[in-house]
Amino acid sequence: MTGAGSFVIGTLSAALIFCSSVRAQDSDSDRLIALMRIGDTVEIMREEGLRYGAEIGAEMLPDVSPDDWNRTVSRIYDAEKMEAVITQGFESALDGEDVAPLVSFFESDLGKEIIGLEIDAREAFLSEETELAAIDAYQDAQDQQTELFKQVETIIADSDLVEYNVMGAMNANLMFYRGLADGGAIDLGESDMLADVWAQESSIRAESEAWLGSFLMTAYRPLQAQELASYAELYRTDEGRVLNTAVFNAYDRMYDEISYLLGQAVAEHMRSEEL
After folding, report:
1. Three-class SS string for the chain?
2. What is the distance between the alpha carbons of residues 257 and 245, in angstroms, rounded to a whole number?
3. How far apart are alpha carbons 203 and 97 in whole angstroms?
4. Is the CB of residue 115 less than 8 Å from the CB of residue 34?
5. With the CA atoms of 227, 229, 231 and 233 taken in that order, what torsion angle do they form, in degrees rounded to the nearest 10?
6. Phi, psi at residue 16, to the nearest 5°?
7. Exposed, middle or buried: residue 239 (CB in 10 Å: 0-12, 13-18, 19+)?
8. Which of 84, 206, 231, 237 has the highest Cβ tally under 10 A?
9. pLDDT exceeds cutoff 90 at 10
10. Do the Cβ atoms of 100 and 26 come closer than 8 Å?
11. How far apart are CA 16 and CA 14, in angstroms?
12. Are 175 and 256 in contact (CB under 8 A)?
């Protein structure tokens, strides 16, 4: 990771060089964000969200018209707004960082292939049958200790993916409770909400481990072992760690906002029922 140096620009020519460097870095950041194909990922996340929202409605709002609730959920999972929140999060996290090596990797044929494979796998997981089959395959690979399983487990461990996912899910759950509480649907203090969220930690962790392993094995199965090793190595670099943190911070911010809005929406529909 590159740090910001302290220096004084003494001449006009030096100032112009400095300004050109800043523009180049900004351009690299924009290019990296485009290469990550956030828009395509958001479209899949929206589909996931619509299904999740429907489940919440069936569980918490059994007497509310499903059509009315689904329209509310659709407004909350606004793809344009979701992409804007994620992009802003990326831009903030990457500000001042040297992302040129990341751009170089993701502009390569291998980099583009990996992003495409990850998006394809996430889209495939919209099918519950596909996801369950992938989890079974992951568990079989775990029993057999296949090379792909070992590589995937290394990637997960190197980047703390389970921890990031667990904390992201718990924070999103907390924001959902806050939305419910602020909307008057529940009467819980912050400590009670935190206690309830932490009580879910072990189950969230187990689900995260199974989902991550099965998802990454599904995505990376077409890759050669050396290709996957090269990708894993990228995330051991300073720039790779910056990207890893930026990805989770940006997406977690989006999920936190959506979870809070969902909580508020549930509370609003509950109040409407009472009236």
Report:
1. CCCCCCCCCCCHHHHHHHHHHHHHHHHHHHHHHHHCCHHHHHHHHHHHHHHHHHHHHHHHCCCCCHHHHHHHHHHHCCHHHHHHHHHHHHHHHHCCCCCHHHHHHHHCHHHHHHHHHHHHHHHHCCCHHHHHHHHHHHHHHHHHCCHHHHHHHHHHHHCCHHHHHHHHHHHHHHHHHHHHHHCCCCCCCHHHHHHHHHHCHHHHHHHHHHHHHHHHHHHHCCCCHHHHHHHHHHCCCHHHHHHHHHHHHHHHHHHHHHHHHHHHHHHHHHHHHHC
2. 18
3. 36
4. no
5. -150
6. -65, -40
7. buried
8. 231
9. no
10. no
11. 5
12. yes
Tokens of 67: 């059509």
Residues 51-107 have pLDDT tens digits of 999 999 999 999 999 999 999 999 999 999 999 999 999 999 998 899 999 999 999
| Amino acid code (one letter) for 263 | G
